[in-house]
Amino acid sequence: MISEQRIFQAYYTKSEPIVSYMVDLLDLNGTETIFEPCAGDGVFLDSILSKYETVKVDAFELNLSAYNKLKNKYSDLENVSIKQTDTLTDLDLEFLCSMGGKYDAVIANPPYGAWRNTEDKASLKRRFNGFYAKESYSLFLYRSIEALNEGGKLVFIIPDTYLNLNMHKDIRKYILTNTKIKEISLFPSSYFPGVNFGYANLSIIALEKCSNYSSNLNNSFNIYKGFKSVEELGKNELQHLTKLNFKQENVLNNDGHIFLTSKNQNVSDTIRKAKLTIGDICDCATGFYSGNDKDRLKVLSKSIRNSKRYEEVDKTKITYDCSSRPLNGIETEKVYVPIVKGGNVKYFKADNWFMEWSKEIVDFYKKDKKARYQNSSYYFRKGIAVPMVSSSSITGAIIENRLFDQSIVGIFPKNEELIYYLLAFFNSPTCNKLIRTINPSTNNSSNYIKKIPFLEPTPEQERIITENIKQIIEQVKLSGNYDSDLENENNKLINELYGF
Ligand SMILES: C[S@@+](CC[C@H](N)C(=O)[O-])C[C@H]1O[C@@H](n2cnc3c(N)ncnc32)[C@H](O)[C@@H]1O
């Protein structure tokens, strides 16, 4: 059963500092017509009406019982109108938007990732010009900007993923070209009572609708972060806050229109100015999935982490040397091949996992609906395995004569000689700063990895790093450990090359 709270994403803004910061950002004078697209129990309305009795308010709420409570609460107020409706599909609102909008202000804490069925998603996608329909908050944002009149103001509290994720590219472009951003504050989701989604931070964005394209591109605004507590929101003069100034034109010109919110300007500049990226010099591909790992994936021994669900492999049936690249399966008895799985291990992963790879089963993988026999031209080649998710820093381990699974992005340099240098790079703090600026969440999917700038090392840098890495790999193979001086020297050289 999905709870009502989950369906409606009814997490109310029970935080006085957040509510008053957001209402202050609207900078009201009492004459405005205001829209609240997902009113909940009316926290924003209460705050606004207590200061500005004379404003006019239209509030929408989908959930019948929340709607009834609102109706009751504001029954004495003629200037407050409540409607039970789905804001995303409401036809009156859609019509009003098509006429250019009418509201002087919109304020909202819209549902994040609200639950919708697939049919709904497809129709929303059509309705919203192909905008990404799985994550509802961006649709609320789009519709609400449309609903503003020229010069109208909007304040939203939403996850910060619209600043960087590829799927939100269109909404970034829309905001950058149709509005003037006033300010954005970034803070941990734990500031929001009852919510703590580890995957992203929250943001409060304030903007003003404007139809003048060139004046929008000329507009500059600040992003604030580094708050020590929720009470500091809006206290932008505090010394310890990080204040990053952006011109909308520069953000629009970034690849994917991403907001580069690294504290270190050097990192952002390197990404912005990159002549070559990892995507230019490497092929990046996600790996294989059997469709049923429980039956087809085997583990070397039960002492391996997270191996409870899997059987031990019959060690007499392993083909360790896959240099012949058996893409169509193995015809001998030795039907198990090593596979590299996710999990953050630097430089070299021991062969702990094995995939069933007989000719018959590979034929099956190729046809099975659940299996993913994808990017097979990279199977068993020499490359670098980067786990798709990294809890702390990004890591890379060498893959050679092995399969890699779908939790891995396999990176295959076009010039194979660069592989050792790149292995050091993917394990370096420099690379971590770059990827976390490109995408601040823990996700390293290939679209983001491809955007990492590549600066060519000097022959001397490449030589030293390659020698160090070869030693590190040997040491890891023998003992599971390596001499950290070698790694430090590599990191230092890469730091000198990039300047951070
Ligand atoms: C995250 S809550 C926020 C409520 C309130 N604005 C606040 O900050 O406390 C989102 C609200 O939107 C409502 N809602 C969800 N989907 C909606 C939709 N499609 N149209 C209108 N309201 C919706 C939910 O019922 C919930 O009350």
UniProtKB/TrEMBL annotation:
InterPro entries: DNA_methylase_N6_adenine_CS, MethylTrfase_TaqI-like_dom, N4_N6_ade-DNA_methylase, SAM-dependent_MTases_sf. It comes from the Bacteria. It is an enzyme of class 2 (transferase). Residues 60-187 form the Type II methyltransferase M.TaqI-like domain. Signal peptide: none annotated. SUPFAM superfamilies: S-adenosyl-L-methionine-dependent methyltransferases. Keywords: DNA-binding, Methyltransferase, Restriction system, S-adenosyl-L-methionine, Transferase. Pfam families: Eco57I. The keyword Transferase applies. Its EC number is 2.1.1.72. It catalyses: a 2'-deoxyadenosine in DNA + S-adenosyl-L-methionine = an N(6)-methyl-2'-deoxyadenosine in DNA + S-adenosyl-L-homocysteine + H(+). This is site-specific DNA-methyltransferase (adenine-specific). It comes from Roseivirga thermotolerans.
